[in-house]
Amino acid sequence: MTKREYLCGLDAAVDVVGGKWKPLLLWALNDAPRRFGELRREIDGISEKVLIQQLRELERDGIVKRTVHEQVPPKVVYALTPRGVALNAALEPLGEWGEANMAHIVATRVA
Hints:
This protein is of the alpha+beta class.
């Protein structure tokens, strides 16, 4: 992978959290660590392949920690790192804006 130059902090942040699923994964992991199957059930519409890819990218960026518990069958748990908790806190106002404007967004997109 080539090293990328960012224009600003927002460019770097969007590169880490960009896409449809990553903010939803962060939201799901905000309350407590989750197993893969729990995440798959909680995030409606995400495929197994995409979930694996998104979790790997978040792990690579230091946002999510993957812990494997040695047992049969193996238990894998995903949790936010301190960097992930901070990113979630930064996204919170965006979520509040979305809640406050959801009806308008839906109405204008239907029209």
